[in-house]
Specification:
The protein is an alpha/beta fold. It has helices at residues 29-43, 70-83, 103-112, 126-131, 140-151, 172-181, 199-205, 214-230, 249-255, 282-290, 304-317, 329-338, 352-355, 358-366, and strands at 2-7, 9-10, 22-23, 55-62, 86-96, 116-122, 156-162, 186-191, 234-237, 240-242, 260-263, 268-271, 274-278, 296-301, 322-323, 341-344, 347-350. The strands form four sheets. Strands 9-10-8-7-6-5-4-1-11 form a nine-stranded mixed β-sheet, with helices on both faces. Helix 6 links the parallel strand 7 and strand 8. Helix 1 packs across helix 10, helix 3 (103-112) packs across helix 5 (140-151) and helix 11 packs antiparallel against helix 14 (358-366). The radius of gyration is 21 Å and the shape is globular.
Length: 367
């Protein structure tokens, strides 16, 4: 079993963000702790535990989980471990903004049981960080890495965003240089996507900036792949690369189709062919729990075709690929001829060029 905890609070909304967040000057840590543990209590009566093994991973995402007080983090993690068996040495990840990292916070996180931190660096260019509405300064990512290493963290990941609007004149190569110089154990690569109702979308509609260039984004992605592989990373999933032994266990469970429970506003849970998700708004989520009402915002059950499509999509995201027989022979042959895929024994996997066309290739495989 795997747990995801969505912490929605942020100091401000990033210019590209359409996630379920709640902008708060002061983070209501105690209220969040109470609410999420109330939801956890409801899950204790769910039939999923009859066949579930121990909890293997816990992931605190957001939002900005590092804005929670260390006391609230500790209370949540201690309660979970007190209610259910936890696997020895579980992977417990905290997403953090660089400006939230301090020697005190790092020590408290480690003492609470967190052993992996994912830092939202995004870029090292001050102008880009300002355009993104990020709250940290360029130099704070390196400072945060040093503090976390000194505290004893041995598993650190950095997030980087590529494919930005050309008017920013960001040097992707320089960003990769600075990220690799920090010697992280893992790097996640995300293409900038323009979502409706975000500042970036409004800026584009007003002509204040241009849409990201697809060719530029593709070139940056391929460059990152080459640089990371040369540096000893394994590009094991379309958006993730890790040093040997440092693949993200929690996210890998998603791609393998494992069961997981999501706690917090907008969090999703997946239990076999059943998926459900919580209400998106923090205030509505908290109010429902206080009133003893359900927080589930929707449910769906996957039919055979949908389950097959999901299996193909998740498998092709990874470097282990899927069974050859899951792809029509003519489609597989066309992929290989184009350089988008390669067969290894009984499996077919996408190349980095194939990953750039992932959605289209999945549709072709499932047709």
């Amino acid at each position: 079993m795997h747990l995801y905890i969505h912490v929605p609070f942020c100091a401000r909304r990033c210019s590209y963000c359409d996630f379920a967040i709640a902008v708060r000057r002061t983070t209501p840590s105690d209220a969040f702790c109470t609410a999420v543990l109330d939801e956890w209590s409801i899950w204790q009566h769910h039939a999923v535990w009859a066949d579930a093994g121990p909890i293997a991973t816990i992931y605190l995402g957001g939002g900005t989980p590092s804005r929670l007080s260390p006391e609230a983090l500790r209370a949540v993690l201690e309660r979970i471990a007190g209610d259910r068996p936890v696997q020895p040495d579980p992977e417990v990840t905290l997403e953090a903004n660089p400006d939230d990292v301090s020697p005190h916070a790092a020590a408290e996180w480690l003492a609470a049981g967190i052993n992996r931190v994912s830092l939202g660096a995004q870029s090292f260019d001050p102008a880009v960080l300002a355009w993104m509405h990020r709250t940290h300064r360029s130099e704070q990512t390196a400072e945060a890495v040093a503090v976390l290493r000194n505290a004893g963290f041995e598993n650190l990941s950095l997030d980087l965003i590529f494919g930005l609007s050309g008017h920013l004149t960001r040097s992707w190569r320089r960003d990769l240089d600075r990220a690799l110089a920090l010697e992280p154990d893992h790097i996640s690569l995300y293409a900038l996507t323009v979502e409706e109702r975000t500042p970036v979308s409004r800026w584009i509609s007003r002509g204040l900036c241009a849409l990201p260039d697809d060719e530029q984004a593709a070139n940056e992605y391929i460059e990152a792949h080459a640089r990371l592989c040369d540096a000893g990373f394994e590009h094991y999933e379309v958006s993730n690369a890790g040093r040997p032994g440092f693949h993200a266990k929690h996210n890998s469970a998603y791609w393998a189709g494992a069961h997981y429970i999501g706690l917090g506003p907008s969090a999703h849970s997946y239990l076999g062919d059943h998926r459900q998700w919580n209400v998106r708004d923090w205030a509505a989520y908290q109010r429902a729990l206080q009133q003893g009402k359900p927080v589930v915002g929707g449910r769906e059950r996957l039919d055979g075709r949908e389950a097959r499509l999901e299996h193909v999509y998740l498998g092709l995201r990874t470097n282990s690929g899927i069974e050859v027989e899951a792809v029509p022979p003519s489609v597989a042959a066309a992929w290989q001829e184009a350089g988008w895929a390669e067969c290894q024994g009984e499996r077919i996997r996408l190349t980095v060029e194939g990953w750039l066309r992932l959605d289209a290739l999945v549709r072709a495989a499932a047709s």
